[in-house]
Design a protein that fits this description.
binds adenine, alpha/beta, 8-stranded parallel sheet, binds zinc ion
């Protein structure tokens, strides 16, 4: 039986399995530049974050209707439940869809249909976190927050993702302030490919409560001391780090050293359709490659519930 756990770093668009991509492409009359699911899977060889993002954004072309987003989220929740996930905080990238002419309402209401049924259908409670694309202008993030206003009863928090290097957290200070004023929780990707200074900036300037990845934190001892003291959770994604070449091999992943340093680490799947595994697959991989003891694995599972936005009760109904 997999350990009960919370998944805190999961991009819903990154759960698009090749089979569903082809099904949605056929349904929506979208031509995919791959002969079949096998050919598509063979394209899942990445050199770095950007090479993954190119494919990740291009495959989103198959997602067009509320039904598509509901099907995507329901398929993820079924897989997550089978892997011991009891609570999932799900990222989505509204700008990647509005840029293609899909309204934010289609995205949020489609996802929400699956999320609202999830406790009963899958035994998984959920939260929705809207991410801004950091390689787009800050103005676009502000416009996206504004466009999301009618849907904020569905949305618990905001995040920051996409190409990290060259797009420091400082760029998004204003939109994070506006989101905080609306009562939204705040997280941000930092220290995946970018330097530890981006983690410090996300804490100081964006007021984030968790760091997504934080892989490079150990490079800065003062930062580590602060993260330990304040019990700032890090949502690590080991299989993702290997596939995107942030670490050479899983056996060299810094997770054990980070736990030894007293950091509040969690293990998550990021974009499981692309990186070779869902939540329990990541737990199994770190157990096997890093020799984590059963107690260490239980600590990771416990941390995931401590770091979750479960104290938020239900997402607010009206703002
Ligand atoms: N978008 C989807 N997955 C991501 C990742 N691992 N880092 C940054 N942006 C992402
Ligand atoms: Zn991510």
């Amino acid at each position: 039986m997999p350990l009960p756990k919370a998944e805190l770093h999961l991009h819903i668009e990154g759960t698009l399995e090749p089979e569903l991509a082809f099904e949605l492409a056929a349904r929506n009359g979208v031509e995919l530049p791959y002969a079949d699911t096998e050919a598509l899977r063979k394209a899942y060889l990445f050199d770095d974050l950007q090479s993954f993002l190119n494919l990740y954004y291009s495959l989103m072309a198959v997602l067009r209707t509320e039904d598509d987003f509901a099907a995507l989220a329901d398929a993820y929740l079924a897989r997550a439940a089978a892997q011991g996930v009891r609570h999932a905080e799900i990222f989505f990238d509204p700008q990647a869809h509005t840029a293609r002419g899909i309204s934010i309402g289609t995205v949020v209401e489609g996802l929400w249909r699956a999320l609202a049924a999830s406790e009963e259908r899958h035994g998984v409670s959920t939260r929705l976190i809207m991410c801004f694309l950091r390689d787009e202008p800050a103005e676009s993030a502000l416009l996206t927050l504004e466009a999301a206003r009618p849907h904020l009863d569905r949305i618990t928090g905001i995040g920051l993702d996409s190409a990290e290097v060259g797009h420091p957290p400082a760029k998004f200070r204003e939109v994070y302030e506006a989101a905080a004023a609306l009562g939204l929780r705040r997280v941000a990707h930092a220290g995946e490919e970018g330097p530890p200074a981006y983690i410090t900036e996300a804490l100081d300037l964006l007021g984030v409560e968790r760091i997504d990845h934080g892989l490079r934190a150990l490079e800065d001892p003062d930062l580590v001391a602060r993260l330990v003291r304040d019990r700032v959770p890090l949502t690590l994604c080991p299989l993702s780090n290997v596939r995107l070449r942030a670490v050479d091999v899983l056996a060299e992943h810094p997770l054990p050293a980070m736990m030894d340093a007293g950091l509040l680490c969690t293990v998550n799947s990021d974009d499981p359709a692309y990186f070779g595994g869902y939540a329990e697959d990541n737990f199994r991989a770190v157990r096997e490659a890093l020799g984590l003891s059963p107690e260490r694995l239980r600590e990771l599972a416990r941390n995931s519930f401590e770091a979750a936005f479960l104290d938020d009760d239900e997402p607010r109904r009206a703002r």
